[in-house]
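Review box. Two proteins, two foldings.
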Amino acid sequence: MKLDRNKYLESRSVKPWRVLMALVVVNVLLGIIVLFFPQGEIALFNEKQIKFVSYDELMGHKDSVTLVNIDSVLQNVVLTTDDDTAVQITQSPIKDTAVTKVDNTQKTDTTQQKLVSDSTQKPTPFVASGTALILPPNNPDALKSLKNGLLNESKNKVVRILHYGDSQLEGDRVTNYLRNKMQLAYGGYGPGILLLKEPAATARGNYLVSQSSNIIKKAIYVRKSPMEDKRYGLAGAAFTMTGTTSEFAGWELSNDSLATRVAKFSEGAHTPAFICIAKRNGGYYRTKIYNKATLLYSAQSPFELTVDRDTATDQYVVPASTFSSKHTWNVSGQKKLKLNFSNGNYPVIYGVALDGYKGVAVDNFAMRGSSGGGFSSMDRARYKQQLNEMNVCAVILQYGINVVPNVRADYGYYKNLLANQLRSIKAAKPGISIIVIGPSDMSKNQAGEMVTYENLPLIRDAMKEAAMETGCCFWDLYQAMGGKNSMPAWVNKGLGQKDYTHFTYKGARYVGELLYNAIQEQVATN
């Protein structure tokens, strides 16, 4: 039978009135849903949600988002532009520790006589503006270690503050400004502990750390990179090396009249491995000056370290240390410092510290993607030794933004996770001062406007509860920024990035000033 083409096409076409009726029915159904769920969302299983236009938006009653008055929030916050002028050194340099120097006949560093002193100054004035530091009721001495370190110990030796955080700290943001303020107030020089394979390494303004391609990073915050025996360093990271190495063959007496010992290594190929630290144009004046360099490491056997500086090259035989140790040597602020692992089995590296002789060091440990977990997975005995060996008086933890996208109605799990990390740190060094910083404001696009994630205050509260429960201090960065919908105001002012999550470098300086003031309000007035 032959089909009639016109009748066939007519039978397959949709009548206009049917399209109209379908649209009417769909809109009526949507209208009923909006009436029954005026908030614009339906909760499903596993805390999932279906979101749609709310009743107010549908009727045109939606109020525009009111942004925080950033000028009011920061009206009393004055940034420090730089610091003081250096003073010539008057004290004796330290001795190289725990090493045998291979060659004393090479050129000496003529700049060694131009090192800078760490003269303690009076704390710089501060304005008690913004949100205050909250002390735990169950631990009135929570800041005792920090106070003693800043007010007393810093006059004679280096005291350290470890600043852990997520990507908000990358490029030395926040920490860089806080470090400068602390060093202006209590003395100190240098950038502190520098790490290899740092996220956004080129964004750090003061120094650029590069390394050979055979160096591998393992960290508590990097998936599928566990370190055997949990042998992580202070930063929650460890750096191993791969390649062919020579073997330490023992010691023998040299032929000179001094009867000095000389390390012997097996002959054969040795794959080069190096760490290079180059000074950059950015950063504060004090970070560009340092009096000593310290290699944090562990090693199964002695190894040879060749150090290239601006004006000299020296070789050292660094002793074995199966647990963890440090090798410190005198070296003034170099344009470039290169550490070559030239003989023997490779050590495990935990970082390189560039410091003054005394004062304050503030270390920046940015952990991209981290929510603050992993500290409890570190070998506690090793962590304890390094905290004591590096004279750490305080720890600052700044996390939370990586938890925000995981929207939940309750964050008890996160409170428990964070509390466990805080207990682990306190167990490694009882009495250490710990400051927990809550999440900064973070925005999402809602009907074309950037608004605060509704769960962010819940995460803030969970972090505060964890801090109070474990006897730690808490600082509410969300509130210090201005609270709800403050990030868009910071972005509009050039203080926040266009992702409405991270601070710009200028914005990070304001955060550093607010944090410094909150700490100083407790340290300098009590």
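Next protein.
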Amino acid sequence: MLSIVGLCACAGAPGDVPGGRLAIDVAPLSLTGLADATYTLRVVNGLDQEVWVKTVTSTQHGDGAGAVSYVGPCDADPAAQPNRIELVVDGIADASGALTEGVDWANPAPTGAPLVLEATCDPDRDVAVDFDIAIARAARQGFFDVAVELVDVFCSAKLDCQNDSGQPLQLLHNADGQRDTTAVLALACTGGPGSTTELYMSDIVVTCGGDTTTIDPALGPGKLSVIPASGLPDTHIFDALVTAGSELLGTYDKKYWNVALGLADVTGCTLSATATASDGALTDGATPVGTTWPVIHWAGDFDACTRHGLDSGDGVVTTQYTDFAGQSFPHYASAAGIGTYVFEIPIVGALVQGDAGQWEDGTYAVSCYDYRYPSAGLYTYTGSTGDGWYTIDPDGAGAIAPYEVYCDQTTASAGVDGGWTLLVDWNRETGTDSWATLRTKMVQVINQMGEQVDRAGYIEWSDLNASYDVMDFRVDAGVPNAGQIRATIHAQGVSNEDSAILFFTHLANGTDVNVVCADDARTGGAWTTYTAAERAYYPGYICPVQGAAAYDYTWNTTYDQDHGSEIDAFHLVSFQADNNGGDSSYLFKLIVYVR
């Protein structure tokens, strides 16, 4: 592609026609290797009368590489406005001679089809006319497809541990209600005019020797010490406060995201975090592959923390760039608020017991859900990612060692695929799981009836002695979850009077919520004749619907429920309350997942 820029100027001067001189300057943008160019210039007034015509060459009237300059008159008569300036490209040549039109180059202004611009020619006044033309030449090379895209993003950032007087910053209230030492990590960015500014941030990591505190900047807004998932307060950070919002500056959208850290014991501790911004949303918080993207990095030593601005020269808050592989950020601040991306890992193959899955860096997720949907989006597997056995570590660096669990990573519920952690899998229908096996799978057995019978395809327990009997299995969840439970239960009951089987969950907020309840208990039934001690075995839960006429009940299905609060245990309960004995219950299958 050959680009040429032309400039036409009309200046008042005496001549054969009213008006002045016409100064024409044709200058190339890029004409590498070009030795000459020939143009025909023609000026016609508004009465369609030719003022003048002239053929000029770059060698005679320019730089010899395509540019020309020429001065001629224009008609300044008011009745003859506007003047029309015509430009014809007669030919171009390189060092080897004239280039063949139609073969070596394509003419944008051949004879009979000139480029035309109009201008009003006033006496004694300069008038400028610009020609912008491009000449296509035959290529003699292959391709480097090079593109440069520049995004306008303006950011400020800081890390402050001192106030204006050089004293420790004190903003957040400690456990005694007193303002205490605080560090503030802050980010504010503005995208281009009319664009929507988006912010992205990593976890904020405070490292103190062998201890690590991870602050999630998307758990706010507000104090994180009131949010159990934050893990605050701890030994080093007594609280954190997250603030975020936006401000419209004319046509510019400004976003800010600040995290204040209450510093307890941070001697020898360092802070690390990374953030970026974009004028428009990044896909899943990842900077584009193939692009070097600016990021802001905080790397502070609390022992030396004072007041640190962006690129102030102390190396604490600095502008850096990603490589062409891009970088992912787990948390975002947008017009919708602040939050965390959910990243889904594709399902490949299966995992077997004894060769359990884990992260490729050797660490473990806290549950099956976190393997399926890693919140940071930074971890990857080596090998299979489907249903099967994984090693989890629910308490992280706590006392409980990592252990293997079975994960259902494919079954869908509430629009979400997989992520289920198996708590209990007991199936007597197969004839392989004994009563003893069930007991070993119970984390806690609260009460156990003595009249159970281990049969080939089920466990039977009966009320043989006409007493108020309750069997209550409690199983602790033990893994973090979002409050969803999936229970496959096959149980049957036969009752002459008041009996029920119920399955309910215990939530971390201290409440019990039923999943299902099979009940023939009737208001004023025989159970009211039992003593307080006998009635104390009753779990304190009555089915929502009373007065069933039938004495027999059966469960044999799978139930999915979302309680919206973390499940820390579930109960399977059977109780019988008749005066003469004879009631029986049968358990065939109990399979329970949480996520």
